[in-house]
Design a protein that fits this description.
The protein is α/β, with parallel strands linked by helices. It is 44% helix and 15% strand. The chain contains 12 helices and 11 strands. The strands form 3 sheets. Strands 3-2-1-4-5-6-9 form a 7-stranded parallel sheet, sandwiched between helices. Strands 7-11 form a two-stranded parallel ribbon. Strand 4, helix 4 and strand 5 form a beta-alpha-beta unit. Helix 9 crosses helix 12. The radius of gyration is 20 Å and the shape is globular. It binds NADP nicotinamide-adenine-dinucleotide phosphate (NAP). NADP nicotinamide-adenine-dinucleotide phosphate binds next to loops.
Length: 291
């Protein structure tokens, strides 16, 4: 692998920053694309090259990809996802970037088609990438522990309750640190390991089991409550409609999957929900228990 910099988009976000930290720890030159150079500077100091710009600014993208060897492609869920990611990919191809590693949607939002506007957007980008003359791989992580599970944990700590549309629905949650480890592996490997990789945690855990794990970690009862998912109007914003669809798909059991991809790529088990809960509880401010 050359010592040309790796360009990371979405580098200041939840997952992107984990990927940048890991690349730097591996001694890789990293360039980050951001609308907020100050925020990137505060996060990474002088350790990274900063390419300022917005996905909608093709000139900024062309400047950002100059001399880049490989690209980590990540952008937030939005109505612009397809346009933005294709613009980055086009700029990368024009600059002879050798490989694109895309952070895609969860597999269950993409297949079968027709259930998720977010999954459809990621699928459109995945299809576009497969037509490019560049080596590409799309990582499809299951729901991240650091997002929906962390939120469930926070609410349980403050309210003593786990609330879900279906308490028995399971999720093969994945720790974002494992997604970052796989992304770095696929950026640095001699070859990518497929067109799409479905990444999950090691086991399927239901909301009822999460409540039990939390009760044990907190040493206090944690109640459970089943509550129908909120309805979001059809003209609501893209992200809210996408999240409402995730809630319904999860409630119907679609996220209850595990694969051995993390284990086979990294040679170790992915991090577990039980360990994540212990870690979160150990660092949280726990209000006094009032029975
Ligand atoms: N959470 C889950 O369970 C889950 C599961 C599967 C897949 N995913 C996928 O993960 C992605 C979200 O990752 P995340 O949560 O780490 O993102 P995030 O924390 O929301 O961060 C968004 C990043 O995108 C950058 N960005 C936003 N708009 C931009 C623009 N117009 N131009 C340039 N940069 C822009 C932001 O950079 P600046 O503000 O610095 O410009 C920031 O670094 C989505 O594609 C989602 O589908 C999430």
């Amino acid at each position: 692998m050359s010592n040309r910099p790796i360009l990371v988009t979405g580098a200041t976000g939840k997952l992107g920053r984990l990927i940048v930290e890991r690349l730097l720890a591996r001694g890789q030159p990293v360039r980050v694309f951001t609308r907020r150079p100050d925020a990137a500077g505060a996060l990474f100091g002088g350790a990274v090259q900063i390419a300022p710009g917005d996905f909608g600014d093709r000139r900024a993208l062309d400047a950002a990809v100059q001399g880049v060897g490989r690209l980590l492609l990540l952008s937030p869920i939005s109505a612009r996802l397809v346009t933005d990611q294709i613009a980055v990919a086009d700029a990368a191809v024009a600059a002879d970037v050798a490989r694109i590693v895309k952070i895609s949607g969860s597999d269950w939002t993409i297949e079968p088609a027709g259930n998720s506007i977010s999954g459809a957007a990621h699928a459109a980008v995945e299809r576009y990438l497969t037509e490019l003359p560049t080596e590409t791989v799309s990582l499809r992580p299951n729901a991240w522990m650091q997002v929906s599970l962390a939120n469930t944990i926070r609410l349980a700590i403050t309210n003593g309750q786990v609330v879900a549309a279906n308490l028995d629905a399971g999720i093969g949650y994945i720790d974002a640190r494992d997604i970052a480890d796989v992304a770095v592996d696929q950026l640095l490997a001699d070859r990518v390991r497929g067109r799409t990789l479905n990444l999950t945690g090691p086991d399927i855990v239901s909301f009822r089991q999460i409540a039990a794990l939390l009760a044990s970690a907190l040493k206090r009862p944690v109640a459970t409550l089943e509550k129908p998912p909120q309805t979001v109007p059809g003209d609501g914003d893209f992200e809210h409609r996408a999240v409402a669809q995730f809630v319904r798909l999860i409630a119907s059991g679609r996220a209850a999957t595990t694969t051995d991809v993390v284990q086979s790529l990294l040679g170790r088990s992915p991090r577990s929900v039980a360990d994540f809960i212990l870690e979160q509880v150990a660092t949280a401010a726990i209000p006094e228990y009032q029975p």
